[in-house]
């Protein structure tokens, strides 16, 4: 916050820094502490200091931060797993009363849920592996070799798409007249 104030960021932006975590539990570190259990572990010791989100925008940032982080751990990405993840996180934030002071309505939460689902599904959508340039060049060379041998094996007067286009195109007809 001091750094944000030093650079004179607007108060609305500075508010995002503590509010987007609210008083949520630092789940990863809390879980690790429970695993080690060298002493009695208190959930309160693993909570952010807050405050809870005071605006719709900081509440949305809170949910987005949690959804994005958790989505990286999904083994399988499909509509069901993404919906389940978003619903669990939003339910947890509501159970912990993190959204109570933000002004978000049930209608807002529905819109947010739909938007996050669309973003996650599109960002995890698998893309085709694009060929590299050297693979393309090899295929071009192979194709050039096979098209040269194919040209020699064609009968004179054989109709190809290329020859059909030349015969029927208006520019080909004009070229013949000249």
Please explain how this structure is put together.
This protein has 178 residues and is an all-alpha fold. It has a domain at 2-25 and 51-123. The protein contains 9 helices and no strands. It is elongated, with a radius of gyration of 31 Å. 15% of the residues are buried. Mean pLDDT is 85; it is low at 157-178.
Number of helices: 9
β-strand percent reads under 5%
* Percent in helix: 55-70%
How many beta-strand segments?
Answer: 0
Largest sheet: none
The residue-averaged pLDDT reads 85
Structure in a nutshell:
This protein is mostly helical. It has 9 helices and no strands.
Topology:
Layout: H1 2-6, H2 11-19, H3 27-36, H4 56-71, H5 79-95, H6 106-123, H7 133-153, H8 161-168, H9 170-177
Helix pairs in contact: 4-5, 5-6, 8-9
Give the key terms:
mainly alpha, 178 residues, disordered C terminus
